[in-house]
Write a structure and sequence with these properties.
Blueprint lengths: L7 E6 L2 E6 L2 H8 L1 H4 L4 E3 L4 H4 L8 E3 L9 E3 L15 E5 L3 H13 L3 E5 L2 H11 L3 E5 L7 H11 L6 E6 L4 H10 L3 E4 L4 H12 L13 H27 L3 H23 L8 H23 L1
Parallel strand pairs: 6-7, 6-8, 8-9, 9-10
Antiparallel strand pairs: 1-2, 1-3, 4-5
Length: about 300
């Protein structure tokens, strides 16, 4: 396996991360790293392709994000984009860290999606009204307008198509998820995200639509990631039911119930498409039944 000029690597130097596009000079540094620059550490990102002898010796393109997942993407035709199984989505990536924006956008584009970016709330809202994303990956901790404020404004605009809002943050407590639910997020995910997570999102968002035939062609690894996302979607559905039970405003309660119902239906369609790994189907069905029972009980309580 050899490096190619023009590919990306991540350089860890003195505890800091830097994205570098390989040049002939940097390629030499990589080859001589142990002898010439022992305190420089290049993270050569590794994935299933690197362990598969089919790809041995072929040129590879290194993905710079996330730093700790060690993913590698072969440039050969050995890996075809997931958009052969589902249409390319329009994805808006919003983060105040330019490195995160660039690396996330690159991963999504490598998978065939149409990507736009923004590094602040005002720009995000302006881009969203023009770009009309299918999915919006939104960082929470940003200056001026944080992710919660941006999500509320996006929901207020009632864009068509309705974007699937994903909170991407370093915080994953129950209270953090509750705040995401109050702001109108569809899903709450903790950093870092990798290519498999993005591909799982495609399955989750598009399951049951006419453009997504089946999820049974997914690899085992992608199935496992998609299954995790399905469970997280059910968690968000329960968060919305919690919010519905505590709000005093009828319109707000109706929106929470609608969000919970949409999340449940999305997971049901995903389950029917075969995206859930076999040994977790029973647990998934049980969680769906518990959620449906809770929703029915809440509906009866509101009626009376």
């Amino acid at each position: 396996m050899r490096l190619i000029v023009g590919s990306w690597c991540v350089l860890h130097y003195c505890g800091r991360s830097r994205h570098k596009r390989l040049t002939p000079e940097l390629t030499i540094v990589v080859k001589d790293v142990n002898a010439a620059r022992p305190r420089w550490k290049w993270l050569l990102l590794v994935t299933y392709a690197a362990q598969n002898k089919t790809y041995t010796g072929r040129p590879v393109r290194y993905s710079p994000y996330p730093f700790n997942s060690y993913r590698l993407l072969p440039t050969s035709s050995g890996t075809t984009s997931r958009v052969t199984a589902a249409r390319a989505m329009r994805v808006l990536v919003v983060d105040d860290c330019l490195d995160t924006i660039e690396s996330t956008a690159m991963l999504l584009r490598l998978d065939g999606h149409d990507v736009d970016t923004a590094n602040d709330g005002v720009t995000c809202i302006a881009r969203a009204t023009v770009f009309r994303p299918d999915v919006l990956l939104l960082d929470i901790g940003m200056p001026t307008l944080n992710g919660y404020a941006i999500a509320r404004e996006i929901r207020r605009l009632e864009l068509v198509p309705k974007p699937y809002l994903v909170a991407v943050t370093g915080y994953g407590t129950r209270d953090d998820k509750r705040q995401s639910g109050e702001a109108g997020f569809d899903l709450h995910l903790c950093k870092p995200l990798d290519m498999q997570t993005y591909q799982g999102l495609v399955t989750l968002v598009q399951a049951g639509s006419s453009i997504f035939d089946t999820a049974r062609s997914l690899t085992q690894q992608n199935q496992e990631v998609t299954t995790d996302l399905m469970f997280r979607q059910l968690d968000m559905a329960n968060v919305y039911l919690d919010l519905a039970a505590t709000t005093l405003m009828d319109d707000r309660r109706d929106k929470c119930i609608a969000h919970a119902t949409e999340a449940r239906n999305k997971v049901s369609r995903c389950l029917e498409s075969g995206a859930c790994v076999d040994d977790r189907v029973a647990a998934m069905v049980n969680r769906l039944q518990l959620l449906s029972t809770r929703m029915a009980a809440y509906a009866r309580e509101v009626t009376h």
